[in-house]
Amino acid sequence: MTETIKGTTRTNVSGALIRNAVLLTVFSLACKGIGMLFRLYLSVRIGAEGMGLHQLVMSVYTLFSSFATAGFTVAVSRLVAERLEQSPDGRADGMLNSAFRLSLAIALVAAGLMAAVTNGVSTTLLGDERTRAPLYILALSLPFMAVTSCLKGAFMAYRKVLVPSSNSLFEQIIKTCSTMLCFGLFMQNETDIGRLCVGIVVGIVAGEISSFLYLSLFYVCSIRPKKGAKTPVGPFARVAMPMAASSYVTSILHTVENVLIPYCLALYGNDRAASLAEFGLIRGMVIPIVFFPFAFLSSLVSILIPEISRLNTRVDKTARDARIERILFLAFVFSTAVGGVFFFFPEEIAILLYKDAAAAPFLRLIALVTPFMYVETIADGLLKSIGEQVYTLKTSIINSVCRIVIIYLLVPRAGAMGYTYLLIASNTFAFLTCMIRIRKKSAVRFFPLQSMVLPLAVTVVLALLCRRLLTLLSFLPASAALVLSIGVFVLIYFAFCGILLKKRGVFNGH
Fold it and tell me: What integer pLDDT is reported at residue 204 of this predicted model?
């Protein structure tokens, strides 16, 4: 009877995980889709130079938002999941209250610091006074972001994934509508990209505030926290702060990197406007395209990280390692197909999305390491879920410092293409370090033939055939022919690779 009950419980949990993963994927795709359409709208409205200026603003904002939020979602998700596993009453209110207090205190300090240094940063570091007003406005969102990040982790740990996933879509809609409303009502004839960036950041702040209100309402109504529950901040800080430190350091280094790139591009021979345009092309247009399909995998991983943290509390790590193994196998198979699509159809995709093939050479090169980018992003989260956040901090610092040095030495001599080569090398290094660490800290097995060689061979053959199909469909509108050709590729590829996935137990709920 006991085994039956355990088996039934495990089946119910597995079914819930599958349902939650599907829900997350649907909402994530909708959110990414709206975000992509909004990015296309911005690229037309503010141009490549405007996208470059916007990326400069966002690089500084990302730095301070990392100070305010870094590590909290993963730490809350992990610690609350562990507490729920061990708690006899199945609650973790004290841990959550500790997270709220610590995150809000850090966020208020980050917001004050951001407001204090904005004037100097905009004129000295960024070298563009048009970034000043957007940065002042963005500082207002940091306290809301901090508490929101903790709430997201709590809902994940309680397996209430519909709330944070629907919230992401709600937030994206508010950001998009608020920005378009600013443009439509107050900036119809505005051409100054600095003022247009103000309209964009107003939408961002509106989205963050609405996200906080949305999650707070559901937290009070669905989780129903107990008043007065307390846990010392120390246990939460010991897990959250190494994760936060990793993000703090890498965010600082990434900000330096983003500021350095336009400067080095100018040394290559471009003027300021052209440098911003090339920077916006790669970071604001190419990279978002490459990571758009990642929504399929990110949903699954955000669901499974709390489950892996639960399994990590057990003495026997067999179930934990088996789940990590299946996640990585799925990531390899999926990301190989994504890289194949971007490598074999870069011109068509660039023209379809941006009405210009300028992004195509960069898209094709970055497609070469798309599998490494996807798998490394997932592996980083998996390592943090099993307590390896200090290791990820060390490797992130090493990788970022090397990137900055190479940017300074290579980009003035090779321009935007040199920066693209750097992205390839950097992501390959990050991928290898994560895989080596997972292999060292677990009994996870890798199957290069099944997870890499065979999917790659299928991808190349199918992509070449679909390129031929695209030519045969020339009587159709270009966009329809491209969508149909890629659709055929995806259907045949995953029909074939579905056999591999099933054989490896990826669809097994245990």
Answer: 94
Using CB atoms within 10 Å of the CB of residue 272, give its burial: 0 to 12 exposed, 13 to 18 middle, 19+ buried: middle
Task: Round to whole Å and give the CA distance between 505 and 14.
Answer: 13
- The angle, 0 to 180 degrees and rounded to 10, between the axes of the packed helices 370-385 and 295-312 is 30
- pTM for this structure? 0.70
- DSSP result, 32-45: HHHHHHHHHHHHHH
Q: Residue 315: CB partners within 8 Å, gap ≥ 6?
A: none
Nearest alpha-carbon partner for 23 in 181, 171, 129, 160: 160
Of 428, 430, 408, which is closest to residue 419 (Cα–Cα)?
Answer: 408
Q: What are phi and psi of 100, to 5 degrees?
A: -60, -45
Helices and strands, counts by H and E, the chain:
19, 0
Encode pLDDT of 20-39 as tens digits: 667 777 787 788 888 888 88
Nearest to 352 by CA among 43, 106, 136: 43
How large is the angle between the packed helices 142-157 and 295-312, nearest 10 degrees? 60
Q: What is the pLDDT of residue 90?
A: 54
pLDDT greater than 50 at residue 289: yes
CA distance 179 to 196: 9
Contact criterion met (CB below 8 Å) for 352 and 482 = yes
Among 65, 291, 59, 359, smallest CA distance to 197 is for 59
pLDDT of residue 509: 47
Q: How confident is the model at residue 17 (pLDDT cuts 50, 70, 90)?
A: low
Give the pLDDT confidence of 60-94 residue by residue, as tens digits. 898 888 888 877 787 787 777 777 766 655 566 67
Is the CB of residue 43 less than 8 Å from the CB of residue 285? yes
Q: What are the distances in angstroms from CA 125 to CA 56, 163, 263, 329?
A: 10, 39, 11, 43
